[in-house]
Write a structure and sequence with these properties.
350 residues, alpha+beta, Endonuclease III, domain 1, Nucleoside Triphosphate Pyrophosphohydrolase, five-stranded mixed sheet, two-stranded antiparallel sheet, 15 helices, 9 strands, MIG/MutY, DNA damage, EC 3.2.2.31, metal-binding
């Protein structure tokens, strides 16, 4: 039995039941693939169910506001995925008359859709024999064939795509693509793969050469940057506070946050610093307290955010201040959401 047929047979017997595997609707396949990018299935599944309930069709998603989409996306991270999802839905509805692209090349024109996602949708929804290559596929192929070309190098990306394309079962591209990804997810895992009971243990190069734990090879990550963020949580006597929407192209674009100052200050120095004095110049401060003495560290892929919250009581806030009880209705970064949840919806615990 050849490799593709062997993989597909394994998949049919061992696959996990997932809601997106019960359909070939390109909208739902696309939605699942975007949500599951850089996200574990266990974390992504509730989001998929929430999105399909709130936005059953691409028209529903296109007609939603960006804030509604980002609020539903809250906690999933990599928020550009949510913004791109919304933009692509609007493009499909407004420019393509609601007709989902049905080829790999046309799918690539959707914002936020790259080679992997276009291949997944094209094969699963339209039976186009174009191979997917994700982290699971890199791992399976590098171990099976003993390939040590770095998977995040230009050469590696090309080499693995070509190999996957050569292997794909052209009669069953959907099953093959899902099979090799599932095999990497639950059999050929990053740590402690089930080599003893593997269907390829008699032919896997990595197993034969004792290289299972050294493959795949990946170039060293970008150096992690440390950033120091200070959030100013204003409180007025009539239970209002101030939030602002993030602009620009940085992290959390379009989300809301408390006014923020960036810089490596200690407690005393921060309250005397020029940025703090400028940020609070228009307020009559009644009390300023540092909520967490030890910064909360929020880890992103290439940066660690050392976060301190400051509670600032003031006599009065400007007209654009919001009622504290409405905070939960705004899409915010997860570290802000955790702060609001942990210390009370109405911030009584301050």
């Amino acid at each position: 039995m050849n490799l593709p047929k062997k993989l597909i047979s394994w998949y049919i017997e061992n696959k996990r039941e997932m809601p997106w595997r019960q359909t070939t609707d390109p909208y739902r396949i696309w939605l699942s693939e975007i949500i599951l990018q850089q996200t574990r299935v266990a974390q992504g599944l509730p989001y998929y169910l929430s999105f399909t309930e709130a936005f059953p069709t691409v028209h529903d998603l296109a007609n939603a506001s960006e804030e509604e989409v980002l609020k539903l996306w809250q906690g999933l991270g990599y928020y550009s995925r949510g913004r791109n999802l919304h933009a692509a839905a609007k493009y499909i509805v407004e420019d393509l008359e609601g007709i989902f692209p049905n080829t790999y090349k046309e799918l690539l024109k959707l914002k936020g859709v790259g080679d992997y996602t276009a291949s997944a949708i094209a094969s699963i929804s339209f039976n186009e024999p174009t191979a997917v290559v994700d982290g699971n596929v890199y791992r399976v192929l590098s171990r099976l064939f003993g390939i040590d070309t770095p998977i995040n190098s230009t050469q590696g990306i090309k080499e693995f795509k070509q190999l996957a394309q050569e292997l794909i079962d052209k009669e069953q591209p959907a099953n093959f693509n899902q099979a090799i990804m599932e095999f990497g997810a639950i059999q050929c895992k990053p740590q402690n793969p089930y080599c003893l009971h593997c269907i390829f243990n008699d032919s896997c190069v990595a197993l034969q050469k004792n290289k299972v734990h050294t493959l795949p090879v990946k170039l060293k990550k970008t150096k992690v940057k440390n950033r120091y963020l200070h959030y100013l949580v204003f409180r007025s006597s009539d239970n209002k506070t101030v939030i602002e929407r993030r602009t620009g192209k940085g992290i959390w674009q379009g989300l809301y946050q408390f006014p923020m100052i960036e810089g490596a200050f200690d407690g005393v120095r921060f309250r005397e610093s020029e940025p703090f004095l400028e940020k609070t110049a228009n307020y009559t401060l009644e009390n300023v307290s540092q909520y967490n003495e030890t910064p909360v560290i929020h880890k992103l892929s290439h940066q660690h955010l050392h976060t301190t919250f400051w509670i600032i009581d003031v006599a009065q806030l400007p007209e654009d201040a919001i009622a504290i009880e409405t905070l939960k209705s705004y899409p915010v970064p997860v570290l802000i959401s955790n702060f609001i949840e942990k210390y009370g919806f109405n911030l009584e615990s301050f």
